[in-house]
Structure formats: C-alpha cells, structure tokens
Specification:
Distance between the termini of chain B: 55 Å
InterPro entries (chain A): Ald_Oxase/Xan_DH_a/b, Ald_Oxase/Xan_DH_a/b_sf, Ald_Oxase/xanthine_DH-like, AldOxase/xan_DH_MoCoBD1, AldOxase/xan_DH_MoCoBD2, AldOxase/xan_DH_Mopterin-bd_sf
Oligomer: heterodimer
GO molecular function, one term (chain B): oxidoreductase activity
InterPro entries (chain B): CO_DH_flav_C, CO_DH_flav_C_dom_sf, Diverse_Substr_Oxidored, FAD-bd_PCMH, FAD-bd_PCMH-like_sf, FAD-bd_PCMH_sub1, FAD-bd_PCMH_sub2, Mopterin_DH_FAD-bd
Shape of chain A: globular
Helix content of chain B: 25-40%
Order of helices and strands of chain B: EHEHEEEHHHHHHEEEEEEEEEHH
CATH architecture of the largest domain in chain A: 2-Layer Sandwich
CATH class of the largest domain in chain B: Alpha Beta
Largest interface: A-B, 31 and 25 residues
Number of strands of chain B: 14
Strand order of the largest sheet of chain A: 3-5-1-12-9-10-11
Keywords (chain B): FAD, Flavoprotein, Oxidoreductase
Strand order of the largest sheet of chain B: 4-5-10-6-7
CATH architecture of the largest domain in chain B: 2-Layer Sandwich
Number of helices of chain A: 20
Number of domains of chain B: 3
Protein name (chain B): Xanthine dehydrogenase family protein subunit M
Number of strands of chain A: 29
Radius of gyration of chain A: 29 Å
Number of domains of chain A: 3
Structural class of chain B: alpha+beta
CATH topology of the largest domain in chain B: Uridine Diphospho-n-acetylenolpyruvylglucosamine Reductase, domain 3
Chain lengths: ~800, ~280
Amino acid sequence: MTTKLFGTKVPRVEDQRFLRGQGRYVDDLLTDDPRLLHAAVLRSPHAHARITDIDVADVLDVEGVLAVWTYDDLVDAMAQPLPLLIPHPTLTHGRTQYALAKDEVNYMGEAIAFVVAVDRYVAEDAVARIRVSYDQLPPVVGIAAARAADRLVHDDVPGNVGARMEQENGDARAAIADAPHTLRLELDVERSACTPMEGRGTVARWDPDTSRLTVWSSTQTSTGVRGCVAAKLGLDLAKVDVITPDVGGGFGVKINHPWPEELLVPLAAMTLGRPVKFTEDRREHFISSAHERAQVHHVEVGFDDDGRVLGLNVEFWHDHGAYTPYGLIVPIITSTQLLGPYKPANYRVVFESLYTNTVIVTPYRGAGRPQGCFVMERTMDAIAAYLGKDRTEVRSTNFIQPDEFPYEHGLVFQDGRPLTYDSGDYPASLEKLKTLVGWDEFEDFRAEMAAQGRRVGIGLACYVEGTGVGPYEGAHVHIETSGKVKVATGLTTQGQGHQTAFAQIVADTLGVRFEDVEITTGDTRKMPYAVGTFASRAAVMSGSAIHLASLRAREKALRIAAEALEAAEDDLEIVDGVVSVRGTDASIDLGTVAVLSNPLRYAFDEASKAATQFSVGDPGKPPVAEDDEPGLEGKDFYSPERSTFANGMHAVIVETDPDTAEITILKYAVVHDCGHLINPMIVEGQIQGGVAQGVGGALYERMEYDEAGQLLNASFMDFLMPYVTEVPTTIDIDHLETPSPLNPLGIKGAGEAGVIPSAAVFAAAIEDAERPYKPTLAITAMPISPSELFDLRLAHADVPAEAIAEETR
Amino acid sequence: MKPAPFAFRRPATLEEALAALAEEPGAKVLAGGQSLVPLLSMRLAAPSMLVDINALPGLGHVRCSSDGGAAGVRIGALARHAHVLASTEAAEVQPLLAMALSHVAHPTIRNRGTTVGSIVHADAAAEMPMVLRLLEGSVDVASVRGRRTVPAGELFAGPLESTLAHDEIAVEAFFPALPEGAGVAFQEIARRHGDYALVGVAALVETDGGEVVRARVGFVSVSDVPVVVDVTDSLDDPAGKALAELDPAADIHATAAYRAHLVKVLTPRVLADAVHHARERNT
C-alpha cells in the first residue's frame, strides 16, 4: 500500500454536509408530502398520580385532528408494558411503563395520550383540550426519599428497591479492619442528561399495497427499533424496515428503545393510512427522555503507609427513576469500572437501584463511569491528603503494572463476562500527564499566583473504560463494477465521523482510494443484523467487522485477478483500486475484477468491455462454482470474547476567585490511550467534546426537581449546558497507543473517554485551590456552583493569615 | 412548543398599530420577540393577537445629541441591541450603554432583540431597564389617546410589569448623556456568559475636582423591579446601604446569601471603576 490512511488525520467527509446545513435528520423527512400527519403527546403534569378519568370528547371537534389514542385504545402487545430490554437476575423488581399510561403515572412527563393532526400546532391545541382527572399520590423524589421508603413509587416494590447487587473479590471488610489506616467518605453525584441537539424523533409510512412499514427514527439502534416495532405491532420482521438518517447527537439516550412514540407513530401510520411524524421538542426531551448520573456512595477504605489500598468497601444507591427499561447497566458499570487502573487487594461493592418518581435513567456518555471515577479518585486524593503524600505517588502505588495484563479483577462486567483488562501502561500514561500539565512545577505556580492574591489548584483523575462490548457487529463490502466500494454496517451513526474512519479502514485493507468508499450505517435493509452505537463500541465492533469483510472481498479479488492475470496470488498487490503483478505492468482494475466475478456477461458498460480480454473460470464447471457466489463481495462479523479496556488520565488547573467563588479553568490536559488510532483528529474531537460535556457535568448541569417531583429547569435557559465560552479554548492532548490484543486492528473505543473523569478532576482541583485557606474543606458532591463553593467556604474555618504567609514564603 | 392560535397584524403605520391594540384587549406587541416568542411557544402566554411593529417606519434609529439638556441617546422601538452596541457615537455620549449591552445575552439574541422592548418587558434580571433607571432616562409612549413621556422612575410597576397601559406602544427610549466629570461602570456575574446575571451592578458617579459629589448604584437580579440606590452619603459602605433596599432571593442557580455577598463584592468594585472612569475622562 502506498498511502496508508489508518492513523492519519483524514478530514471528516461528513463535515461539509453538516456544516452547510445539508444534514438530513428525521424532522427533515417527508416535509413535501401533503399527506404527512403530526403527533403530539399529552404528558403527565404530576410526578405521581392515579388517573381516574380521561375525557377526549373535546379533542375530535378540533379541526384538523384525525385521531387520539389513550391506553384504552391499545390492544394486544401494545397494551402490554414496554419491554425490559436487559433483564438481570438481581433486578428482582423491574418495572416498565406502558406506551400510554395505564391507571397511574409515575413521573412528570409520562405519556398519557397521543394525538395525530394535520400539523403540530393543531396537535398541541388538541392536547390542551384533553381533560384528565387525577388522584395525586405522594411522590418519591431523590435518593434519600427513596431509601427512607415512607412512600412507594410502585405499590408492589417494597422499599423502592428494584435491585440489590453485590460483588466481592477477597474479603474487603476484614482487610479494612486489619489495615493500618482507614478512611470513610460520603460522596454524591447529581442528575444530569445527554441533551443532544436533536431530540427524539420518528416518522413512519405504511404502504398498504405491499403491507410494508418503513420507520425512520433518531435512534442509536435501528435493528433494535425494528425488532420492537415488529413485535409490538404484530408484523413479520421482514415487513418492517428501520432507517436511521443523520442523527443530531445521541450520547446514550437514544439507545433506550422503544420509546412510546417509536411504537405509536407506526401504529398511527398503519391505522390512518398516512405517514406520521413525531418530533420531540426541547421541553419534552427534558421531561420524557432519559436522565443519568444520580448516585450516593458510602466508601470505606483501608490502606498501608504507602497508600496501598488493602481493602475497599463501597456501598452505593443508584436513582434509576420511575422505570427500569434498560436494566442495571449503569450501576453495574459504576460498580466495576470504579476500580479504574487500580488493584485494591480486596474489593466489595454493593448497590441498590432505587425507584423515584422522576424521569427514567439510562446510560449517558460515560454510563456510570463518571460516578465510579469520582468515588475512586476522591478516595485516592483522601488517602494522599491523609498520608501527606503526593497524589500521583499514591496512585502509582496502586496501579496495575504493564506486565500484569491481562489483569483479572475477579468481578463480572456489564456484558456478563469476567472483568479482565486486556492492555495498558498506566505508569507511562501518568508520566506523560505529569509532563503535559506541569505537575512537578505546579507549586511554584501556586506560590506565584498566591503572591498576586490568586488561588489556583490542580487535580488529576485516572479512569479505565471498558469499550467495544459485544455481542457482535457485521459488515458487508461490495465492490461495484465501477470500482466503487459500497460498505454497509448495521450500527447507527450520530455524528462521530464513522463515514470517514470506516472508509479509512476499507481503503487500507482493500487497497482502494478513500474517495471510492461509501459507508452506509443504520439501515436494516442493508444490514439486518446489528446491535447499535453505544458503549464506545462502533470503531472496535464495526471497524473490526469492516476490516474482516474487506479482507474477504480482497481475498476474492486476488483469487479472480490471479486467474485473469495468470499470476500467483502472492505476487499481486492492490493499490488505488488496481490489482497488479508486482514488478510487471500486468494489471487489472478492481471494477473489472468485479465484472469477472459475475458470470452475467451483458456488456453494458466500459468495465464489461474491459473484462472481455480476460478469461476466468473453468469451462468444464458451472459458471458459479459450488463454493462460490457471484459478485465481488465480502461479508463478515466481529464478535469478541470480551470488552477491550481503554484508559486515560486528565489533569486540570483551576482558579477560584477569593471573593466571588467563581471557578475558572486555566489548563486542561488529557493523556488518552485507546490503542491504535484510526484517525487522531476524530479521537481528539471526541475527547474535546467529552471534556466539554464533562465541564457541564462538573460545573453547570443538574436536574432541579422540587419535592413535588416537578422538574424546575426543563429548558436550556435554566439547565446550564456550557456554551463555548465556558469550555477551555485549548485542551492539551497526548496519546499513548497500547494496542488491544482482542481485535485485528488493535483498537479500543474512544467515544466516552472525555467525560468520565470530569467530576473527579474538577473536585480535586477546586479542593486543592481552597485547601491552603480552608484546610478542612472537602468537595464531596458534584456538580459544584460558585454559590455552593461560597457555602462551603462559610462552613469551614480559615487558616490564620500568618500561616499562609509562612507557607508561600 | 407551538404557540396557541392568535391573530396576526403587521401594520404599516403607527396609527394602525395603535388602533389594532386599542381594539383588541388581548393583543400584544411583537418587536424583537426574544422574550415574547419563547413565552408563546411554551404557551405561558396566549395573546389573542400579535401586533407586529417591525414594518413601522422611522423607529429603528439610534440618535445621539450632545447639546444641553436634551443631550443623550434616543433609541427607537425597532433599534436592535446590536445596532445600539455598534454605535460608537452612542458609546461616547453615554458609555454605560455599551458597557451594559455587551452583557445582554448573545450576539444572535442582540441581533433581533430590541433595547426598548427589553425595557418595557420590565425584567429586573435584565440590564437595560436598570440602566435606564440609573441614568434617569425616560420612555416615550404612544396610544390612540396621544403621546406621553414616562420617566424611568415611574416605569416599573412590579415583576415583569411596566406602568404602560395595554394599548400603549413604547416608541423611543431616552438615555441622558454622561455629564462632564461623571463616570460609569458595569459588572455582572452570571453562571454562563450571556446568561441573566446572578447579580449585576452599575454605577454612576459625578465628581467635582476629583471629589465624588454624587454616587448612585443600580442593581440587576436582586429585586423584583430595577432598583437604584443613592450611596453618596455612604461611600464607606455602599453595599450595606444598598442591601437595605434590595431583596436578594434564592433560585436554582444561587442562594440569597450568595447574591447578597456578590452585592457586597461588586458594589465597591463598580464604584471604584466608575470613579476611575470619571477621572480618566477628565484627563
């Protein structure tokens, strides 16, 4: 290969389209179709209530309204609760909602009625005329209320506990009891949410002539949606196509499925015989899509004089909201990934997953890891502070060493497989980070700033991220007679740059021009077997599958070309789509090979004519040999035995204003190891986006529920997603490339990395900035606002001014 | 997030607009729409009619005068924040305008939102109502009954409530020029750049021979209506004097105590900046 693209910063082919407003999202579909109808949803204004009556009499009088559905209109599978997608033996009390509420609502925003009208305005007018009678019930809001269980979310779920799960490696409690030093920490992380630019959306069209349903959905899994729609509407799978067009961000919320509207829109389209569209608005996204993050942790840790963790016992409570459609994925990830790059000699973790009368909780970028990382890193910082040691030293003492891979933690990961790290070099990563952020020079900087009356602090946090979870992804590679290469993989894309990164793999593996490769994602017509885009798995899973499928296509191309060129396969090379015999000028275009691969010999184009000079196949045998098939294609699936574990370390220097308690980011540094990089620019983009989202989670965003379960900040005016002005203008990034032995490309996932350590790293840096002045101040809850930092300062005594002067001298 | 049905008028003359308002008690005026349209979309407001004044002639002006008693900046009802902010002449005649306007939301909002519209929206968390009050400006108001001038001190009735009658349109705001020997300053602290301030403070000081002879401070987001406090006699503790007249409240972004603290931090800072500004102008 002359030009290797793998590992280079190929500009994203998607960007021209996206930046010029030429993206095509669900809401852009069928806009010219005069038959298109629009849906709106009546949502519960109460967090917890029994529905005693729904009166829709006034609705059908509204001009332009075609139909309204309530629970009573649903039949068969649609009248059953929505699926519990990922059951788990410890999820003893899993509950899911109905597509439309049956008798009871359990969060503000739960869908009650579905109206279809000629436009969304009329649909909303109609929704406003539905009269629902409620008997309000006392709501359960927040982890404390859920644990107290004075009130129950579901009458048949005692203690509001959906699941209790415990894992242990060794005997943590005994190890802590015997340890020379022990600490206890109480830690708290608030609710947040993905809030992609594009909310949820679904369009469906029913073709009565062919009895075929086409659904377009803004989802992270088109195959999953297809399966649900077919099952719920009683259709044969083969009669349902699900297509995912451009998606304006997912970040996890769109992996949960089916959303009520993903079923109700196709139902309406079939019932009314007209295409129907639902486009979620921003307020709906806040109150009826998923949230994440809220957990409370209690930590006990025992350690020796070096800070080596001898025993770690973590109990935590996870707020999963009103229902559990996505099972226990988030708390299981927290409980296992909490360990990060460390190897406590004994570890016990137990969690309870609790019901509250709030929006459901499903994975949000990081998916339970930010909480785990916050807990582990706060613990490391606490140990270092207790022993008076440098924070990096305590971490080094606890690192898994490079020669210990594969490292078995003795726990079970979210995919049901053993938690086994495949590769990494944590000491090397830490050295890189210290250099990048200037760790060893920081005290000089602190003193310099202190002399100007400024407070600065530094923090670091390390994480390990299980990426590329199975079970599988597949790819189909088709080389057309033009030489163009059409590749399909089934998972969806929501802006990550898959078209670019996957095309790089194809170009390299197959030996074709990057420009000749076209990637299709998320279309069940092209690739009906697929899982989805989540858990930082697209590059690992589909990237590997695409590589394997390309190898198959290449293998076939070489076999046919060898025959045509009367040469040995080993003597052939493919460069820029031309197969040639090394050291000669004998060659054949891949497009011509594609013609030869198909015994159908209508010479309708130049490629066909060009092929006539070559002769392949044995005239004594059938035109398509027994073990062969026509066409130049390759199809393969990649299914790893377990996840591959990427890792990284972040450090931040912050300034805290002595007067206003405002928090300013001065420097943000990231060392990242996701194995071999397919496209460093895309990986760095993922890191930057993740850090931006992490800044939001650490310093700005939270879901403000009041005691009645009303979400007070369900808009971007009051839910403070950071603007570009709040995010560091530069992020210093360095890479380590420790390849994964688990896949042919040696790659690991990179999608979630940037967001995982944010709460941990900001808590550490803010605490570090304050400690010289407030020695007892500890940051134990995130996010933190200036108002809260102000409160913390009030709650902790000052160091006498003379002592500070002494220190900085 | 779609508005409830409403009638829509886009009159070509002020007279027509005033007539439409007078005839329809449920009508609202649409200028930049940066506050009204979100309220409509969230169905928090459902006027029976919108009277869109964007086609009215002669209301887009930013007119500056530095002569005598009428010296100041006259801003028409259709002048956008961005237009006012871009006027170097306005910034010279009354520097506080630009100082405050740069804190009004973001460029996209300033491109559409009108300064006069922001004033009569009467939001105590917005910068321009307070600035008008601090500078002792006024608003010219028209209705089918004629025209009148409302001094800023009589403009604000309560939270998001002006003293304008339903059928009145604010056609122009007048911001007096900064007198010789005077200085102004503005600072605010917001959670994110461009957000409504947690606390915003502006100061206007008049000096004579370098001595402060009059000092007034205006506050954003710590009261129900824009509040201006004369601190001429309490320059040793201006924030203390101010806090007696303010009512900082808690919301999801900050506690009342933190807001009061920010008043204490910002007030002396902004006063010092204004004094510095006055001295700079004199040299």
